[in-house]
Amino acid sequence: MSVDADVDAAAVRDLLVFAAREAGALALEYFRPGERTSAKVTAKAGGSPVTDADLAADSLLKRRLREALPQAGWLSEETVDDFERLARRRLIVVDPIDGTRAFVIGDPRWAVSAALIVDERPVAGVVHAPALNETYAAARGEGATFNGAALVPVGAWPPRVAAGPKPVIEAMAERLGVSVEITPRVPALAYRLAMAARGVVDFAVAAENSHDWDIAAADILLEEAGARLIEASGERLRYNARQVRRGALLAAPDLGAPRLLEAFRAAAGWRPD
Fold this sequence. Notes:
Helices cover about 35% and strands about 25% of the residues. It is globular and about 50 Å long. It folds into two domains: about 10-150, Fructose-1,6-Bisphosphatase, Chain A, domain 1; about 160-270, D-Maltodextrin-Binding Protein, domain 2, CATH 3.40.190.80.
């Protein structure tokens, strides 16, 4: 059934969840906990890995989501970007397996990430971690959920736990004058940001060079959970531009965002233009 006509955010969220779970189940057929994947692994330009599971999940998501959202453009890590999407108000953004390196070696912390962008901002998104049996979902104005249960607004202060690059977080903690525990490296950025939306960590940092498919779904999760995903400028992100690579990013609860942003800017060496 098409849900594209009036962009019902809740209906799109449900569609994304259904498709992400289907793609996750497909990828799980190739996943071996604690062991190397059964999927064929090759290297893309630049050296990052891609597997048959990535490509199969990408194909499934493209088929399911473009059929239901025919007016939307398409942007995926595993599909060549032809920039046709730039002429459209609506855009599906997908990473069929965020954390492919983790997937390859049997680390369960990988996720299917999918979002719908309307007028440059996400209106619905899902981050589904099949090997962990965890599903994060959100729709604009409808809140965010974890495995179907509502996420309450996050905002612990002072922050005590964070995820992301150790040097940046240590510099932020020193600037804030607090002690912050840094979680072990989380290989999938979408999942790391979902942890911040859930309050498993009090804030999260993404190093520069993430891409829109890594972050779009987590962006709406954070927003609907009372947090924000921002650049050092403090601005919320806009999507569906020609450039899809990002600078360093901060996921912070609304309550502590001003102080965290100040520390983030100092740690990142940011200066206004």
